[in-house]
Amino acid sequence: MSGWLQRNRSTLVIGLATLAALLVAVLLGGGPRTGADHDPENPGARGARALAQVLADEGVDVAIVRSAAALENQSLDADTTVVVTSPENLGQSTADRLRAATRDSTTVVVGAAPGATEALGIDAPATSSTPQGLQDGDCTDTGLGDLSDLSIEVDAAASYATTAGCFPSDTGWALASAGDGLALLGAAGIVENDQVLRADNAAVALRLLGQHPRLVWYVPSLDDLVGDDGVGVRSLLPRWLTPALWLLGLAMIAVIWWRGRRLGALAVEPLPVTVRSLETTEARGRLYRSTSARGHAADALRRSTRHDLSTHLRLPTSDVDALVRDVAVRLDRPASDIDALIGERATAPATDHELIRLAAALAELDREVPRT
């Protein structure tokens, strides 16, 4: 058993590392609801748990809903702000239900992609922008609040080209008004846990989401989609697939580094390389010994002896029976004894001592035949 473990150690290590990576990926992906970007219960760097807790501490009634039915069951009026995160999960049906449910309230869509704006019926094509440094408020729509005295730091390069908004770039506004109480927050990074304290990100987020005493945080679910809703390939993949692929990649890199370090650096040698026959014989002998391949070693010795005897007696190498008879006649020995030494069906040695005795007997036979 120990020999098998020694020979298959590398395979076992790779298999265990892969299994561990998959287990960790499944455990990390066990809570898909709290692992999404801008999720109010996600404590990670790209989550929004810090902002949700601060709003609750400031007296805002924060309710988190994760389905279209739960949103429709909420009492949404003019004193309610509805913030929508993960808008890429919206389909046409859930977008229509969202607009119908939030008809009397203020709605803020965080990080709306082109597909989401199209589903919401917003004529505000998303364009890319790479602003440098801070972006000043410079609001052109007072309906978004008094944000002109604030500045935000934007890491995402998304802004929405609409008729009015705040925080302008060369292509549009990072916070844009889409009319009917609907606002598009293209600078989604200002609500994230690791960016909310940069510049005036926290102040802008609190003013935008805390403008009413009640906040409903809506995280759309793919379970609400119907057959006619268009979804992307990414939305159909399980959430744990990405961390699983990362862990598998890291595990493979670790195995490659481990094996490469074990083998050492490559040795450069001019070709062709001349290897002495003695070194080759000794290396093959050590290989046979390490695997206890006495049968292979005995066959190699017998083939070499048959070749030498056939050359000396001028007999074909393929006719082993004729070689056995000729050697037996020349040495005046029984053919059965010669066949036990050089025959193709001769018994393989069971121990190292038997192999040594066979090698000595073949060497003596190789010396006797030329003397006859």
Helix content: 40-55%
The major pleated sheet works out as: 7 strands, mixed
The parts where pLDDT drops under 50 for at least 5 residues are: none
Structure annotation, total helices: 14
How does the overall form come out from the CA principal axes?
rod-shaped
Number of strands: 11
- Which structural class do you get from the secondary structure elements? alpha/beta
How far the N terminus sits from the C terminus, by CA atoms, comes to 51 Å
Number of domains: 3
Strand content: 5-15%
Spatial sequence of strands, sheet with the most strands: 1-11-2-3-10-9-8
Radius of gyration: 40 Å
**Mean pLDDT, as a whole number?**
80
Helix-strand sequence? HHHEHEHEHEEEEEEEHEHHHHHHH
Supply database-style keywords:
two-stranded antiparallel sheet; alpha/beta; 3 domains; seven-stranded mixed β-sheet; 372 residues; single chain
Characterization of the model:
- With about 375 residues, the protein is an alpha/beta fold.
- It has three domains: about 1-25 and about 245-265, no CATH class; about 30-235, no CATH class; about 275-370, no CATH class.
- Helices cover about 45% and strands about 10% of the residues.
- It is built from 14 helices and eleven strands.
- The chain has helices spanning about 1-5, 10-30, 50-55, 70, 90-100, 115-120, 200-210, 235, 240-265, 275-290, 295-315, 320-330, 335-340, 350-370; strands at about 60-65, 80-85, 105-110, 125-130, 135, 150-155, 160, 165-170, 175, 180-185, 215-220.
- The chain has a seven-stranded mixed beta sheet.
- The longest helix is centred in the last third of the chain and has 23 residues, at about 240-265.
- It is rod-shaped, with a radius of gyration of 40 Å.
- The mean pLDDT is about 80.
